[in-house]
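User: Please fill in residues for this 189-position structure.
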C-alpha cells in the first residue's frame, strides 16, 4: 500500500513539473522570449561583408576555376571534399577552405610572421570551439591573421584574442548551405 501511494505521488509530481515546463516553454515561444537564435544585424557582425562568388563544386582539387576575389577566400568554387574543424599544422588548400565555410565554420589562419606564442593562443581558441573552427597556417596571407566565414572577412595585423573570439562566436553558424535564423549576406541587404 505504501509503495503504491509513493508511486502515485511521484507520478503526480512528475506530471505537474512536465506540464509546468511545457507551459512555460509555450508561453516563451508565443512571447518570443526564447528567440535567442535570431541572427545579429549586419552592423553587429565583425569583419567586412564580401560579395557572393558562387558555391559550385569543382570536380577535383586543383581543377581550373575562376580566381577568388578575397584573400583568404570567403565563397566561390570549392572542393567536393571537406575538412573537419580542428587544428591543422599544414595549410588548408583554398578550395577546401571554401567548403569549410559553406558548412558554417570559421577559419582562423595565420601567416609565417605570426609568433609561435600567438599561434599557441589561436590553437587554444580553436580548441574552445571544436565544432566551429579550423585553425591553420596560410603562407599566402603574407602577414598577420585572416578570419573568414561565409562571405565575411577580417584581417588582423597582430593577435587580438578578443577580436578573434568575437568573430568566431558571431560568425560561426550564420551560414550552413544557406543563411540561418534570419542572417543575410550583408552585401545585398
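Assistant: Residues filled in for all 189 positions:
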Amino acid at each position: 500500500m505504501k509503495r503504491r501511494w509513493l508511486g502515485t505521488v511521484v507520478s503526480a509530481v512528475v506530471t505537474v513539473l512536465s506540464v509546468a515546463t511545457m507551459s512555460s516553454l509555450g508561453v516563451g515561444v508565443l512571447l518570443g522570449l526564447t528567440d535567442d537564435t535570431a541572427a545579429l544585424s549586419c552592423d553587429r557582425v565583425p569583419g567586412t561583408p564580401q560579395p557572393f562568388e558562387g558555391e559550385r563544386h569543382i570536380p577535383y582539387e586543383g581543377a581550373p576555376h575562376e580566381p577568388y576575389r578575397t584573400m583568404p577566400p570567403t565563397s566561390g568554387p570549392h572542393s567536393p571534399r571537406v575538412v573537419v574543424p580542428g587544428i591543422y599544422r599544414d595549410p588548408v588548400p583554398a578550395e577546401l577552405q571554401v567548403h569549410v565555410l559553406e558548412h558554417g565554420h570559421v577559419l582562423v589562419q595565420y601567416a609565417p610572421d605570426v609568433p609561435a606564442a600567438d599561434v599557441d593562443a589561436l590553437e587554444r581558441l580553436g580548441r574552445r570551439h571544436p565544432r566551429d573552427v579550423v585553425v591553420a597556417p596560410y603562407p599566402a596571407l603574407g602577414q598577420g591573421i585572416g578570419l573568414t566565414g561565409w562571405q565575411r572577412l577580417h584581417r588582423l595585423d597582430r593577435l587580438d584574442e578578443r577580436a578573434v573570439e568575437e568573430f568566431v562566436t558571431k560568425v560561426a553558424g550564420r551560414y550552413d548551405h544557406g543563411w540561418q535564423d534570419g542572417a543575410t549576406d550583408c552585401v545585398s541587404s
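For context: The longest strand covers residues 106-110.
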